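This section describes the prediction task in plain terms. A model, or a person checking by hand, is given the sequence of a single protein chain and must write out its three-dimensional structure as a string of tokens. No templates, partner chains or ligands are provided. The sample shown here is typical of the held-out split.
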Amino acid sequence: MPNDISGGRNAQQAVTAAGDRATHFIFTHKVFASLDGYFGLSHEQREPVFFVSFGEVNAALPFTTLCREFTIDPESDDGKLLEVVSQGLRYVKEIRPGDSIPRELLDGSASWTVEEVHRRRSTQRIRIQVASYGDGEEMLVFDLAEMARLTGAADFEARYLNGCRKLAQKLGLKRGGDEKTVIRRIDALAREITYIEALRDRFNKIRSVQRGLTELRRAYSRDPVIRPDIDRALALIRAPMDDFEGVFTNLYAQVSEILLVLMAYGPYVAFIRDSRDELHNGMMRWDGLVTEWENLIVQASQSNETLVKSAYRFLATNYPQAGDWTLVGKLEAQKELRFGNAALAS
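The expected answer:
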């Protein structure tokens, strides 16, 4: 996912067009201006490297090599900016000199866009949660048809405002404008959840690779060569699928009590953003594979055998063992840092 400077512009043009170092990757060393290179993660080790061409030779220089070969002091401004590049590659696939620094590193907001359907879905779910809180039986609804039915009811707006008033009372807000204060905070929370909704749709596309492997397993049920490859791929794909699913389940469990969320709004938003960023970072590597599989026709064919081998190579490289990728564990550790010893939803 490239930032806002296109690959056709050279580094010096990018620097001229960009802002300052506080918001953009502006380097002073001539190597970044003279070579049309970009930063990304190496294909196998997933470490930050500088991709550049020397004549007909394409090179991927790890940052330690880059600094040594071009005499870049790690403590210099450029050296420190390379550290920011390393962090930025958690949020975008490609960074070129002069690109803007991902917003996740500047103010915590997401650097990628969402669609109106995700905003609507998030807003409906949160508003239903608030309205049901006012009714005395808080609930989270995920069925899209049911969400549309509930929010379209004639009495829904009155129920929602009643929930806002009850929340304001529980929060101890002063009378006069207290309801609007709660509404603003709920709207802000819905904006944060919007990105989770977009990631759920993205995860469904990733899940389609697993479904495709399962369907091909039946098509190759008697093939002694391809069937074992499919089985190995299915064994490897299970762990990351369960881990992604676990993050979504955990996140929605944590925001299932709206009063607790509003009482500790800052830490909850930080936790939602941690989840968002970890999910986004974990899903970026799947984009190429998802594109390869999106037009799958379930049948025995040479093209599908190529797809199976590609999927197996991807999984064996990125998820060689079931216990190697524990996103839920990482987020639990971050949750403890955000909330101290107190449980999120206790």
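For orientation: The beta strands are 38-41, 48-54, 57-62.
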